[in-house]
Design goal:
Structural class: alpha/beta
Radius of gyration: 16 Å
Shape: globular
Number of helices: 8
Length: about 180
């Protein structure tokens, strides 16, 4: 992959993970920015409805720039995040959103919805968009691609935010709840 790829790490599940709107947003970005739009990587194992996502990627007018590498091992994942222009996470529902914290910890800008768990996890360390609106997703991507101040700001905020999440801290808080 060339530098400048966008990554979405999630199982390929349709419609919940919202890959089709991301593909549509990426097509719009490619139409506006040409080669500067980069590439889209949808990393994750096939799940329910994966065939719909594979078909949409294959039939895209920018299919040559959309990659579905399948499951990425935990050992390799930090390199995928660190090399990406940004994590674009348009999921329609998450219980937590671990990829957001993983990406922030790797110094990767995060773009995600402000609602629900994703908004709570990312807080002010992400660039928010409406996951049901491909134009909104594309606009957030375009800001990262064209404004040189956006990515470094998101990286700095993301690294600070990621430091708030530690398994030990989580275990201690959970133990505290059980004790109460």
């Amino acid at each position: 992959l060339d530098p400048g790829w966008w990554v979405y790490v999630a199982r390929l599940e349709h419609p919940g993970k919202n890959h089709l709107r991301l593909i549509e947003a990426f097509e719009s970005l490619c139409d506006r920015l040409g080669p500067a739009a980069g590439q889209l990587v949808l990393a994750g194992a096939d799940w329910h409805g994966a065939e719909v996502i594979h078909r949409a990627a294959a039939e895209s007018r920018h299919a040559a720039r959309i990659f579905l590498p399948g499951f990425v091992s935990l050992d390799d994942l930090p390199a995928w995040y660190a090399g990406a222009r940004a994590l674009v996470f348009p999921s329609l529902f998450e219980g937590f959103g671990i990829p957001l914290v993983e990406a922030m910890a790797c110094g990767t800008p995060v773009l995600c919805p402000a609602e629900g768990a994703m908004g709570e996890v990312a807080a002010d360390a992400s660039l928010a968009f409406d996951p049901k609106n491909p134009a909104s997703i594309a606009s957030a991507m375009e800001r990262v691609a064209t404004d040189p101040a956006v990515a470094p700001d998101l990286v700095a905020k993301g690294l600070r935010r990621a430091a708030d999440f530690h398994w030990r801290k989580t275990a201690m808080r959970t133990l505290e709840v059980y004790r109460r």
